[in-house]
């Protein structure tokens, strides 16, 4: 007979079982060992002490090999499921403004949100390197809990693996997410039409610059922080004023330039953006100039690109500016009929150049 930690237990026998279980479910080691991935007591104690205690909810507390939830309640919120998965290998684990735990939760939420879905459930699987401090893992799990609570989602199942020292770098996280798309919402890059307007919700490149500086490879002092944040509430705000959003995507790896190229290729329209309209923080621009990077390709973890019919542009922009995650939103360009599949940038000198897809990797292990 299962019990939920969130509910009082009246049966004396179950109370005794709970006391025994609680007494045993503590991690005594200060560092991760191979035993923590063995499937035995050490692993169970780690899961109970770090993950179950952090992510506690009625579905997770059943501690089955899978999570089950009521389909009828999902169908009341929409007519389609959105399902996504992602992995996080960011280095370092903790950086200005965020950490790998919050990043994993918000990144997965955002991949659901840009489809128009309401995020509901997440999974959390971790690959741990032997020797990782247990306190580091606890700190990451606590961060994930806080991010999930803030976003109103539940982490309902997961997995733990441990590899030999040197076979992984400290901690990797894999997540999957499930959300529900409301009826009538159909967001796809293939929907973009000429004269559609392109809007972003704020400054570009903050996450990429924050990671670079956190690695200590540059002797720079700056207060640049990652823009890591959940975007589903902002998306809901946009859809209230414009249910006919044509395309939406979060600009993570590859940055704005990659998203726009994906849009142009999918819809076979051209996209023209204005360099002077694109918000880039002065310190980020400085980092890019020192290293020869282009902020258009820098990763973001709290920025989305929205393409809407021109008649909705001002109302969407106003709605975005009314939301904390979109207060710096701005129009940066439009879709054009020709050349199809190409992104053009109007420069500050009133010339035009092609903005191609990212070739290679400006900055590895950014998320």
Radius of gyration: 22 Å
Structural class designation: alpha+beta
Strand order of the largest sheet: 8-10-7-11-9-12-13
Strand segment count: 13
CATH architecture of the largest domain: Alpha-Beta Complex
- Approximately how much helix is present in the residues? 25-40%
Distance between the termini: 41 Å
Instruction: Report the CATH C-level class of the largest domain.
Output: Alpha Beta
When the domains are counted, the total is: 2
User: Can you tell me the residue ranges where pLDDT is under 50 for at least 5 consecutive residues?
Assistant: 1-7
What's the overall geometry? globular
> Secondary-structure element order, as H and E?
HHHEEEHEHEEEHHEHEHEHEEE
Report the β-strand fraction as a percent range. Answer: 15-25%
CATH superfamily of the largest domain: PurM-like C-terminal domain
**What is the name of the CATH topology of the largest domain?**
Phosphoribosyl-aminoimidazole Synthetase, Chain A, domain 2
């Amino acid at each position: 007979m299962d019990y939920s930690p969130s509910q009082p237990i009246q049966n004396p026998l179950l109370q005794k079982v709970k006391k025994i279980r609680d007494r045993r479910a503590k991690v005594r080691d200060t560092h991760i060992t191979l035993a923590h991935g063995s499937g035995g007591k050490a692993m169970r104690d780690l899961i109970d002490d770090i993950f179950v205690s952090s992510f506690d909810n009625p579905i997770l507390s059943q501690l089955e090999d899978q999570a089950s939830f009521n389909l009828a309640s999902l169908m009341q919120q929409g007519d389609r499921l959105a399902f996504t998965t992602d992995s996080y290998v960011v280095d370092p684990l903790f950086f200005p403004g965020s950490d790998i735990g919050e990043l994993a939760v918000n990144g997965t939420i955002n991949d659901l949100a840009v489809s128009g879905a309401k995020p509901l459930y997440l999974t959390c699987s971790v690959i741990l390197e032997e020797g990782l401090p247990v306190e580091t893992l606890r700190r990451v799990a606590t961060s994930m809990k806080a991010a999930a609570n803030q976003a109103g989602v539940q982490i309902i199942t997961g997995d733990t693996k441990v590899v030999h020292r040197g076979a992984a770098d400290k901690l990797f996280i894999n997540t999957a997410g499930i959300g529900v798309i409301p009826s009538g919402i159909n967001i796809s890059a293939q929907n973009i039409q000429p004269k559609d307007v392109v809007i972003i919700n704020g400054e570009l490149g903050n996450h990429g610059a924050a990671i670079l500086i956190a690695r200590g490879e540059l002797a720079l002092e700056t207060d640049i922080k990652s823009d890591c944040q959940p975007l589903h509430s902002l998306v809901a705000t946009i859809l209230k004023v414009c249910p006919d959003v044509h395309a939406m995507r979060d600009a993570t790896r590859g940055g704005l330039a990659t998203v726009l190229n994906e849009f142009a290729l999918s819809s076979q329209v051209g996209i023209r953006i204005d360099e002077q309209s694109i918000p880039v923080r002065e310190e980020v621009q400085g980092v890019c100039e020192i290293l020869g990077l282009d902020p258009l390709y820098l990763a973001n973890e709290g920025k989305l690109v929205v393409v809407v019919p021109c008649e909705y542009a001002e109302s969407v922009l106003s709605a975005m500016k009314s939301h904390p995650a979109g207060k710096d939103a701005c129009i940066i360009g439009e879709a054009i009929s020709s050349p199809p599949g190409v992104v053009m940038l109007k420069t500050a000198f009133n010339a035009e150049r092609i903005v191609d897809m990212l070739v290679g990797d400006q900055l590895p292990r950014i998320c």
